[in-house]
Each structure stands twice: as structure tokens, then as C-alpha cells.
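Field reference: "sequence" (input) and "structure" (output). Example, fructose-2,6-bisphosphate 2-phosphatase:
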Amino acid sequence: MVGLPARGKSYLSNKLQRYLLWLEYQVKVFNVGQYRRQIYRKMAEESGHKADQSSNFFDTKNAEASKAREAMASECLEDLIRWLKAGGNVGIHDATNSTRKRRKALADRIKREPGLKLLFIESLCTDPAVIAANIAVKVASGDPDYDGQPPEQAERDFRERIKHYEESYEPFDPELDKDQTWCQMVNVGKQVTVNRIDGYLQSRIAFYLMNLHLTPRSIYFTRHGESQYNVEGKIGGDAPLSAQGEKYMEALPELIKQKLGDTPLTVWTSTLRRTIQTASLLPYEKLTWKSLDELDAGVCDGMTYEEIAEYYPEDYNARDDDKFNYRYRGGESYRDVVIRLEPVILELERQENILVVCHQAVLRCLYAYFHNLSQEELPYIKIPLHTVIKLTPKAYGCDEERFTLPIEAVDTTRYAD
């Protein structure tokens, strides 16, 4: 990462880590600030004196501190390299890396390691409102650097730290840095410049970054209303709503209106009629996605779990043993669904307020992405019928609210025997 403090580098690092983990890469963020705090905490414990980590520590004229910061950044980089050589796929060096000299040293070190590629990602922010908001989050989030300090004092010191970095900051330049591989983001998504992107993974990362933005928004998830197949205990199919499901269809518009007011909204559904029917009374623009269709149950489509246990006992047990990877005969696994949902994820990152009306397995995958949940957790996420889940992306995750309408529905969650 490259950029001044309060420019969203850690935000981007965490977003990128979450995306690549969801796509099953081994990813780890190495934050230089955490290294600095850990080292100085240990020194304080040994000496009994707390080291100065105020803005003075970041003054470019403070030779001793500058040397210490370089050493910490290098130690962090060496740990990253060791982790990659031990089997990791993507290591993210979360630091300012704000001068050409520092970036050259970093690039020269990576060149000495066969098989490693380097991509610089710069977060360049020129919007004073965004910078002020980032500073406020930094100060209010309980940052260890300002533990016990009044907010006003912490903000003053942090702004002084930024000024010190600004004195030597050298953003990427198309001419001066034409030989390096980099992606420069201006105001997180307003403008993106890429240079010498090399290979599939770097292209994938750059495309993901192009879809990000900081506009405040919420994403709403809901399953379709209860269907006839839900009542009968069958999986898959294209059944219509049950009587209870129709009640949910009728009540959903009022709930959404209460939560959004006049805020613009787009509704996404799958191509299956139970989702289209559920969304039919919502007075918003609607888009239909084939990618949002329910997990394909193959030869088990239209069967109950009891019938699957009777006719396909080996498959029934195999799915319980590894629910994420098990693929129905002629159908899909959760892993397959994750892969086909990547375009949906990219579009969700690009859009503002969206209501997604689809299915249990699909919503489990989307929910796991936004909450950074593991493959082991994903197939067991509780997504009940007749409930709207509101996710509001924040700097380091998502706030969540759930709204359940008082309309009875069957519980379709199946627990392993």
C-alpha cells in the first residue's frame, strides 16, 4: 500500500483481503503500525518507560525515529516474504511507503525472491471532507496511539503526523514511475490509474478496486416468501409462494418504505418465480440475475431430505461431512455458487442501495463475503424466511440489523444428523 495517513489504506487492505479470501486465496495483511506498537509496548514493559509515539516520532527531521521506522517497515516486509514462501498467495504490506526511495528499496527486495510479484496500490485523497471523516474515525475508533488522550488532543497530534508525511510524500507519476507496477486510486473510486499491470491476479485486483466507492449506502438481503416447496420440505424447484409467502409479499413494501423513506433503491431477484413474485409489489426498479438462482440440487431437485437419505445415502452423508465442497450429482456445491457470484459481488460493491431477493444458499454466500466468514461457517449461516437483513458497510466491516415480520413460516434450516 502507498499513501498518507487517513487516506483509507487500511480500509482498502481489509476490503481486498476479504475479497481474495472469499475467492479462496491465502491472504494476510501486515500492518507496519501494529509492528511499531508491539515493539514499543515490549520496550516499555522492559524499561518501565513509555516511548514517544506522538507526531514527533514521524518528523522527517528526527533522524533516530526515521531510522527506527525504516527498520520496522523492513521487519514487517521480511515477515511478509517468509509467509509467502511458506505457502501464502497474497501478502499486503499496509504502510505509507510514501517516497520513491522507500518504494525502490521495497521493489529491490522483492526482486531477490524468485516467483514473487509486486503491485503498489496508492490511495490518493484530495477531498477534504473524506480526509476529515477518516481522521474522525481514526481518533474515535480507540486507536492505541491515542489511548487515554482527549479526542481534541488526539486529532491535533494526528494532523501534525500527517503534515510530517506530506513534507516528503511523492505520489505515483506516469512518467517518473513508468517502470513500476502500480494502481493509483483517487478518492476511492472517483478515478483509477493503472500502470504495467501484469497477469491474471493483478488484473483481478485492479478490476475489483475500480468498483469500490465510499458513498454511504446499505444493502438489504431477504429470502423469497415461503414457497410451496418450503411447506412440503422439498429443495430446489421453481414453486410459487405459499399463502404465508404471499402475505410476506404483501407486507414487504411497507417494511422497506419504513426503513428507506424516499431513498432510491434497486431490487435484484433471481430468475425463479418465488423471488420475482416476492418482489412484485415493490415500487422500485428491478433487475433479474441468473447468478442469483438457488444452488442447483441436480438429481435431488424436488426431493425432501428424507428422500435423499433413502435414495442417495452416500451423497446424503457426504454432504454432511463437507457441506461447502459437496456437489450434488448433476448440480452444484457451495463452492460453485461462490464462484458464480463474483460478478454479483463486484456489482454490489459498485452500486449504492440494493435489495437482494433470492435464496438461502445464495444469501449465505453473499452474507459470508460481507462479514468475512470462513468456508466452514458459510453453509450454516442462519438466514430465516420473512426476515430482512440490513448491512451497512463501515471502515472495518458491516453493521447489521434484522427485521422479522410477524408472518409464520417453516424453518428450512437442516442440521446435520
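Residues 63-85 form the longest helix (23 residues).
The mean pLDDT is 94.
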